[in-house]
């Protein structure tokens, strides 16, 4: 019963152990589903389930009939046109990161967006190339098709064809991997990539993008180095040829970079006042193409230009099996990173606009998009935050805006692609770098993370360094491994504290944090704030022993050795027992512990047996001369397991052994706040026996404390003993002077 009194409350109930509570409130037996039950449930078939699966697999069927045509269509058209123009330019620019002709970037924009319209669940992301993902595909392409050192034009065209095929094959198998994960409901895999890891990884990828675009900005022949420390070799190659820089390309790149950065800063600073972001990429591209065409930059300054783009679509092709076999590792990394980036961006917009997204369905959508895109010689797609920001900020409501953007891309592919032929590649490289501002600004997170969580800060730095120097694929694997290692380290060294009563109430907190604390004499309350498993159970044991300030094994062995000495003295007549004390009848010869052990060390770890002695020994009183044992000042230990979410079998065995060591030296052990199912697991693991009993489990710390007080004071308080017999264990215990002095009232 709870009685509110102002801002206080008074609770009157019994002192509950786990068993007593379950008996009184009739705990119901529950059936826990097995793995086979879950499989049967997953593969069951009914008309309702078929309909549910169909709607989940084709989300467009759910939202398209509810589309508010009059309210949304204009916004989606405007947003789609703006997004489509940006997507065209980014597709051309990011194709350079893949080391293939720019025109194939348009296929990477068109097909995935078309597929995502049907299968995707986010309404606001713009699907297409992403610089980090494009660079990862480019590294795989360089590994499969290295650069030609001869510089032959014919060989160059052949290499371009092979690289297009390599990029398509890597994209295809990445899509297959994503599709398989989606079908198997592995959408949760993204949880293993923390925000710190993703931030450090994308920042490192931005550095790789910056270095990879130097050869286009300076127009240098730099081979690809897809190996650890490849970025060092790339920079070495760039600086060794720095005197061969094409000044026209360099000047153009710098001008474009400055203009793009300035206008993007204006867009960010005045986004609340601007009706739509200034399409600086489009403006710069049009001006650069016009200037290059009329000033004849290619003829006069020998600049590298985009050249003729492929008109129309090419026939779909099957992936190259040899390329697939050699790039499985790269494809898995590309699939995971692409999904992680897209899902994180989609989640931001889903929270902002209050609609659900399905991680497994997103995997299926991106998987099918990459399969289709790879079949038509595109490369891996995800989403770019800048492009998605354009789609959302210009009024996009649904993926209708995505369809409009694909129409813009389609027009470029079929009709006006030739207008981009005189555009310098250095301009595209500068546009690619212009989209890296947000990623490069993530360096500021190091200081913020160091102040908030040093573990996350270390994860960020290690991920960044690993991805920069080891490459994006190996770096990602190393970063994930290091992140999981930090989790193991944190759980392997859990927080263990001694608790005390605060404010004479039922609240127990760390005894070091409060001045107004009260502690029961002879009682230690120990909390472990982490799961206990094979890796940290020894740490838990060491901390518990340090908290009670004695080793129970050492005490037990000393007591058993003392019993051996007493038996020996009694047998020789050197010791006489009286009701009050032991009387030594003769000088006892000191014997070493080694002689007493007599190669029977295992017997010293058994419970002390006093049945053959004429009296029970009180270890706290005076012992015969020459016999000493460590003094134990506590009689009860309460283990707060409210934060222990699980124990594995190894931890259960060690915990059982540790508790028995305390029980054998007459210390009562109580476990409070254990989670549901905890005792059931212990019973299955044969945890309980004659020494360790289920009655040691209590609902709360305060229940265990009150039980200890009743148990210790019941003999010295006759009224309390009488009340126990008459009132079914319902007591009122009133502390008169803290928890160290108790007045028993009924």
Automatic annotation (TrEMBL):
BP GO terms, sorted: transmembrane transport
Major place of residence: membrane
InterPro entries attached to this UniProt entry: SLC26A/SulP_dom, SLC26A/SulP_fam, STAS_dom, STAS_dom_sf
Protein name per the record: Chloride anion exchanger
Source organism (scientific name): Apaloderma vittatum
Annotated localization: Membrane
Membrane topology summary: Multi-pass membrane protein
A cellular-component GO term for this protein: membrane
